[in-house]
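Thread: Newbie trying to understand structure tokens

Hi all, I'm a second-year student working on a class project, and my supervisor (Dr. K.) asked me to get a predicted structure for one chain before our next meeting. I've only ever worked with sequences, so writing a 3D structure as a token string is new to me. If someone could post the tokens and maybe explain what I'm looking at, I'd be very grateful. Here's the chain:
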Amino acid sequence: MKLWRWALWMLLAALVAALGWHALASDPGYVLLRFHGWQLESTVVALALLILLAWIALGLAWRLLRWPFGAMSRRHRRISRKRFSEGLLALIEGRHGDAQRALTRAARFGPLRAPALLAEAE
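---
Reply by user tm_fold:
Sure, no problem. This is what the structure looks like when written as tokens:
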């Protein structure tokens, strides 16, 4: 089903591009921007591509700025899952002190809080 949906979207995008090309082929438009002594003369198509490239560059810069914080979050999630599994294993093996300590640490991660606290109560 997803394949057909993607094919339909691609077909629709091709149709919009063809209609846009047909409209802009005879007269590409003229854009004049003036800002504090700077002057930019361009066509509508070139300006649209410039805006698209600027949007991509800003998105890439935003992802690069957010990457370290995501890495810390992924590390915290991975360690919490490891502690949760170690706590359950210790609980099954009968090492209740180790299980309580590991499950208490695993409960610091939000999505594992309820299962870790329930297992700790065992």
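A couple of things are worth pointing out once you decode it. The chain has four helices and two strands. Helices lie at 2-26, 44-93, 96-106, 113-121. Feel free to ask follow-ups in this thread.
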